[in-house]
Design goal:
alpha/beta, Rossmann fold, 6-stranded mixed sheet, 5-stranded parallel sheet, 17 helices, globular
């Protein structure tokens, strides 16, 4: 696979770069900081050395006078290094520290805030369609996702099959995040049914036969190791009674596919619909993270069941987006968007579908999903993209 220029642009000061494994964090920082002092904490010997004596980092830094940048890859492996990094940022003026991580679990316990705002927080996501340009294939993206490590492989399905097992072994089991790895494995399968759906903890607990409180903890672990995230309800100036539960998404549609079991009673169109909505969700999330305007993402659902898949709340505009995995648009497909516009007349509405034509239906813009994803760029607002 040819080199892809990522939308993430590193700042000029020290920063954390979080992202799931396989999103290209190491590649990105090596390209951006080719002359940096590079410490790989996936190296067991390096981990043993720095775990035993974190202050050894000072000796390493002071020995490299030809570079003014230090990259520590997978910082969560030795969280005690944060204390030393904090000290070095204070004492070594003009140095930049780049700290990458695929889990925030240990750092939360030991205190990312130790750096007290001296290191910015950034995230790296799977590829966006606009990063891939003409190489973006919607069908392939819906099947295998957009993880760089998967797309670069000749056997993407095999990489995806081993991806969850890698996390179970190296991020969950080895770090002692759960007591019963079998329960957590069943939970991963059960939670896949909640992808692009309202998260009902009690239902997931019944499905994987563990206590509700345990499942709540498991969902928190998924968020901390960056495999899943929750989308909150948009409640600003609400006039109607709304749902109180968030929606849940796995971070990449290929990972969703790898975890979601298929059986004779499953309807393919249901899984395909979840995959398409999830693909839009991961794009909106990456776009929001990379954008200078930092628009916030929500969904909207009344207690009577009227729903809009995504609400984009930015400084310039309020947008409501609905995703339909169909070639044609039916009047019922517009119901949620119309209800949202009745509640928020200042909003704009957009329906994304699998057809080929850009349409206007009852004053609502309907756009092919592929076109929308390829146009989504962090330097552009939705108004710019859709004008």
């Amino acid at each position: 696979m040819e080199m892809v220029r990522r939308f993430f642009q590193p700042p000029r000061t020290s920063f954390f770069l979080f992202g799931p494994r396989g999103t290209g964090k190491s590649t990105s920082v090596r390209q951006s900081f080719p002359k940096a002092v590079y410490l790989d904490l996936l190296d067991p010997e390096r981990v043993r050395s720095l775990s035993a004596m974190p202050e050894r980092l000072k000796e390493i830094v002071q020995a490299h006078t030809g570079s003014r940048c230090v990259v520590i890859d997978e910082i969560q492996k030795v969280p005690d290094l944060l204390m030393v990094v904090h000290s070095l940022i204070e004492s070594q003026k003009g140095w930049t520290f780049v700290l990458t991580g695929s889990s925030a679990r240990k750092l939360k316990r030991t205190g990312v805030n130790l750096l007290g705002g001296r290191a910015l927080l950034h995230t790296l996501h799977p590829f966006m369609a606009a990063e891939l340009g003409e190489n973006f294939d919607l069908h392939q993206a819906l099947r295998y996702g957009l993880l760089p490590v998967v797309m670069a492989s000749d056997e993407p399905a095999e990489v995806l099959r081993s991806y969850a097992a890698l996390y179970l072994r190296e991020e969950v089991q080895m770090e002692g995040l759960v007591r019963n790895i079998g329960n957590f494995s069943r939970f991963l399968e059960a939670i896949s049914f909640s992808h692009a759906s309202i998260l009902n903890i009690s239902n997931v607990a019944r499905e994987c036969e563990v206590e509700r409180k345990v499942v709540e903890g498991y969902v928190g672990i998924l968020e901390d190791i960056l495999l899943g995230w929750r989308l909150p309800v948009f409640t600003k100036r609400a006039k109607r009674k709304l749902s109180v539960h968030p929606k849940f998404y796995l971070f990449d549609v290929g990972v969703f596919r790898s975890l979601r079991p298929q059986g004779p009673l499953d309807r393919p169109e249901e899984t395909e619909g979840q995959a398409l909505e999830g693909l839009v969700a991961q794009h909106l999330r990456a776009w929001s993270a990379y954008s200078r305007l930092k628009p916030k993402l929500f969904y909207w659902r009344t207690q009577s069941g009227v729903e809009v898949d995504f609400v984009v709340y930015g400084p310039e505009r309020l947008w409501a987006l609905e995703v339909k995995n169909s070639q044609k648009i039916h009047p019922a497909d517009l119901r949620g968007l119309k209800s949202f516009q009745e509640e928020f007349p200042q909003s704009k509405a957009l329906l994304l579908y699998r057809g080929q034509d850009r349409l206007k239906k009852d004053k609502i813009l309907c756009l092919p999903c592929r076109d929308f994803l390829q146009s989504l760029h962090p330097d552009r607002s939705l108004d710019d993209i859709l004008s």
